[in-house]
Amino acid sequence: MAQVLYCDICTLPIEFCSFTKTLPKCKKWLQSTHPAIYDSLYESGETNASSSLSAEKEQKIEESLAKMQLKEQRKQERALKSLQNEKIQIRRIPRTKHKAVCVVGNLGVLNTAVPSDGQPSEPVDLKKLAKRMASKFATGASVDNKTDEIVIQGDVGPGVEELLQGVLKEKGLLGVVGIEHVLEKNFLKPVKKQPK
Which domains are seen in the chain, by residue range? Predict the structure, then answer.
């Protein structure tokens, strides 16, 4: 039984790489890892394909593939740029006159950002991080999985920033992901004291 060789770039069998948007990367990978297979597949395959297809059709196919590859490359660049611009937000939201909650938002960046060394790290479990924060600050902390936020009771902004910098350092994301403080205004109207 013949073994099927899968591409590390597009994860398809190498015969189907020509139908993907990542064809140049796939060719480079195949040439560097399996040069004999690359020669048999692309060097001899190009001469056979040119005889069966007309020159115009072949040119149209190459142009459309080039457009698709360019779009894919730009899409990946935009995604990388947006990840670099994202920051973890620490918001202090007043609840009542003297009480406040601290909301640590945009924590999904911890799991999607690529460390500076290029090696992907383990994803951050938000429940464990919330428990760690709750035990450190001796307060309540809960996770909102829909928005990737941790809500901490009390005004613990500077302590949260130190803890998050430690987590970023552990994951190798210290220079990649930033931390930003956001102050939100109290939406409660001030109570006017009436003279007696």
Answer: 14-82 (no CATH), 86-183 (3.30.780.10)
pLDDT (tens digit per residue) in 105-127: 888 877 776 666 666 667 788 89
Work out the number of other CB atoms within 10 angstroms of the CB of residue 38: 17
Q: Where are the beta strands (DSSP E) in 35-186?
A: 87-94, 100-105, 141-144, 149-153, 178-183
Residue 7 contacts by C-beta under 8 Å, 6 or more apart in sequence? 13, 14, 17, 26, 29, 30
What is the signed CA dihedral for 11, 12, 13, 15, rounded to 10 degrees?
A: -130
pLDDT tens digits, one per residue of 52-102: 557 777 778 788 888 888 888 888 778 767 666 678 888 888 888 888 889
pTM: 0.53
| DSSP assigned state of 4 | P
Residues 6+ apart with CB under 8 A from 56: none
Rounded to whole angstroms, the Cα distance separating 103 from 151 reads: 5
Report d(CA 139, CA 156) in Å as an integer. Answer: 10
